[in-house]
């Protein structure tokens, strides 16, 4: 539950303070609004936020729910598995959103540095998939 709460906090803050900032002369619109990567960032950030909120609500309902013995054998494990999968999906979407935000803000003139960064993101992606 702590991880889901942290992801929800991070993604909410990233939605309010968009990468690159806002343009004060253009009524506060984001600077990268016309960039295709910005649209992809918004989508992955939203997926991460809603995935973490879904997992948080499912974990809370699993903790606070009243279960009979039969529910304890069937409904609770299904709810916990679904909550864990939502959390995994949120973590992966957060990694992708972070990579996209860095790609927008930092000018990647050095191809080797970009390849190292993408390799690190891919490693974390594979780690989270293998752990689940």
From TrEMBL:
Residues 1-104 form the PGG domain. The keyword Cell membrane does not apply. GO terms for cellular component: membrane. It comes from the Eukaryota. Keywords: Membrane, Signal, Transmembrane, Transmembrane helix. Residues 1-15 form the signal peptide. The chain crosses the membrane at residues 39-60, 80-108, 114-131. InterPro entries: PGG_dom. This is Ankyrin repeat protein. It comes from Trifolium medium.
């Amino acid at each position: 539950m702590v991880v889901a709460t942290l992801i929800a906090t991070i993604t909410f803050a990233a939605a309010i303070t968009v990468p690159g900032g806002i343009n004060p002369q253009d009524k506060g619109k984001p600077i990268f609004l016309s960039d295709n990567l910005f649209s992809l960032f918004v989508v992955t950030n939203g997926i991460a936020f809603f995935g973490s909120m879904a997992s948080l609500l499912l974990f809370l309902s699993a903790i606070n729910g009243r279960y009979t013995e039969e529910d304890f054998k069937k409904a609770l494990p299904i709810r916990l598995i679904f909550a864990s999968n939502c959390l995994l999906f949120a973590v992966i979407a957060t990694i992708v959103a972070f990579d996209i935000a860095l790609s927008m803000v930092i000018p990647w003139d050095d191809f080797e540095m970009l390849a190292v960064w993408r390799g690190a993101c891919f490693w974390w992606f594979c780690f989270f998939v293998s752990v689940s």
